[in-house]
## 1
Amino acid sequence: MATQVAIKGAKTLPPSSPFGELLRRSKFAAYDPKIRQAYTAPASYISRGNWGLKRPIANKQRHSNIVLRNFEEHAHYIEWDKASAQVDLVKRVEELNITPTVVPSTTWGMGLGPSATQIDSEFASQDLIEEARQRETDKLAEREQAAFEALENGTEETNVLPFPTVEYNLKVLDSLPSRGPGGYGMSGRATRSSQEQSDAFVQYNIAAMTPRQFNAYLDELRSLRPQFLQYIREELSKTQNISDIADDQLVTLLGRTAVTKSLHRFFLAEHTKKKLDGELGAAGVRPEEVANAPQPILGRPHQQAGLMYASPTKVETFFSTDYAPGFILQNVSTSGHMFSTRDEYITTFAGLTAVLPKNDAGPSAVPLIEPFSAEGISAELVSDGKGGETLDPSTSERRMRMTELSIQSPPVVVGYDAPNKPIRQIELRSKVVVDAGANQNMRDMPYTPGSFKYANYLPKVSTKWGQTDYSRLFGGHQQKPGMKQPIGDLERRDARRREQGKSATLDTLSKMMKGQPKK
């Protein structure tokens, strides 16, 4: 009987419509005109201009990408743009396998909030990291307040904030659970501080609001004026007596103090946090209805703005990548020298403009061009075989490796006119080093640990004339063949002095032997 029921219950689902099946398999099902998305197609389809749209487009370049500005116009045409540069940039960063960093002083860096801290430690929880960051923010606010009070009083002295006390350090250590050897991680969330200010960065991004959303947000802030005045009174009453000041005079007299302490940010953060947690509901609404209602979602911006989702360490980057060809273009100009205090070159590497310190470029590096001179060219001119002359790039070509990549400004990829803005608006800072550069040749131990050369190698010792390799002086092993280090004038001079010292020593000994009486 059970078998018959099971057989009767099994039914075959009807086949889906061809349009629905194609729509589910197509990447255009998630098309959003406000997001700059890059699309591709198989090479065999691209050669015919078939991109899965209603009509072919005039892009038949194999292995290319496009961006749709509009899926379908009223005039029955498709507006599109090339996106190969956008995709190639992401692929190049993935091939370099380097973790991009964000410049802290930029708008994107300050908007990251607690997510800007990249700490993955088994000895510290996220709460401790946020509390440490908040303590630094509080110290800065107190220093600004002390400087403002000193300016008002006519004095220039400011109080230097002390370091955390021993009692506070012991309190933090007591909050860390100990589970014996091999179990030093956090078994639970650490105790939060009494002042819940670690979420001061949880605020709405007014720059991403539409005019209607911004006006609604202003109306919401106007309704919070009584609560904000009460919050200011409670916070300022902890340090001074303000019981005689009315609410209408509170902002006028102590508004500067409240701004210095960033009380408006903490108030908005607390209100936004309660709103996102679903703790704020309309009057007369039952709690279970508020809990089941859709709640706003807290946006978490990506630290690298989506440029690189993996976070390889410098060791992983070093062993997973190799040196690649690059060109030294020119010297850093005076106007572009604001981020460095050393002489540097501007290079081109992996499709990016990078900075190369001259100490890491080697002694024979020659830039291709010299835009600040009358000639404008630094490289030598050679015959091109057709009766003309061309630049010789051999003296400017070097094998390079990228060591630093920082995001100055991420591209605008979300917005009403985002598909019309190319990804070239992104601003990156990068730094490279040259294979067997001058600084890399000064490593203390270039040999494999445990080998005979490792045990017999004597490290370099710094002198006032530079670094001396004692392995060369005493007939030890030389450096690796790949680590080319030309002998400079200082080493030649040291060698001549050593020969002169040996000759003087032999002459002195011979004179001493001649002056001794015969037995």
## 2
Amino acid sequence: MSHRPLRAAVSVGTHEERHAGHGWLEWLGEHLDLGWRPGEWDHKRWLFTGDLGSDRTAAWPCAMPDCSVATRYHHRRCEGCRRARLAADLSWEEFDAAPLRRLIRPLVRGICLVPGCESELLSRGLCLRHERSWRKDNAEPVEAFIARARPLARRGDCAVAGCEREQVSRRGLCRFHDNRLLRQHEVTSLRADELDAWIAAERPLLGAHQFSLAALPELLRTEFLFALQRRDQAPPPLDPAQVRILLARLAGAPSVRHADPAVVCETGGVQYNSATRGLFRDLRRHLDQTWAACTGGPVRWRGVAGGAAGPAAQLLAALARDPGDHRLPPWKIPVSVDRRLTIATRLATSYKGEKVGTASVCWSVCHLRGGVNGMPGTPQEPGWWQATAGRSYPPHTNPATPPGRRVSTAA
């Protein structure tokens, strides 16, 4: 992953971009992959729940036997097990023999043990309502209470967008969000509009293998999902924790393309900034290339040639806008929008972090677009490279091999 400083985003808001904004959102919505990550991505709820057995997702089950909590680290214990062992002052061998842990964000939330009850488990095998009822006379054994209690229907989901936990308060919140509200506000004097604003700004309680786009503005979440799907077509694996950190940094941004890189990437610790910077750069690159291909607008991303807007970056921008650009070879092969984006993405990924000459990039374009030795307009002589690239290179012995590093063009 590259760690070059991000260049500041160019100020946007031209008449052309504002005019194209609605069409841009519609285009993105039409090109979302609704079948992306089956079994992991729930498009109706805008919720991602990673498969802990998949090599494409950076999340794993806790190494503790019989623990049902996810962790972002391979062959390591979840946070709940680690805290419980430290509190008990035991070695891992002793703790494994007799674990005393409180599950933190388990994969599957339990159900109340009262026969037929649909409410979520809280403690002692009971849901919140049954637990409160039992505590009125807790001299009765809990087993006897479970046997005689009447089942209850599950209440609706929490009012926080994307939170699937059962609401337990008259404010329509789950226990987690209601407790958070009580810590932050004096609810007796909280107005309805203030409560609505607080709920709108909250995020759901998620596991290490999850992220939610439900609470984001429509444009922001559509851009984010579109770019994430494009990025997911190649390594590295998708890290839900990285995504959650980036989403928190994007709070208040109108869209991914218009977010301020300084705010998004430089407001946390060094470790978080590095991971966030790489993910944010990748998403912006995919979106800017798509915007240029669809609207002919400017490409603000500058992720090639050491981060500068050099000849190679300009060539990629031209490629994204027009596969028949005059700086490319004169022969033209019809290329779809999706194919142009694939080409540009492969080139950018291959050359990211390297200072490469325009000639090398141009050769890769020719090869990806179908150019082969002997085909009219393909680079057969060193002079063609000098003319196309607009710069001089030492003569090379093999005319079929361009100067610079050759990138893989395998589909």
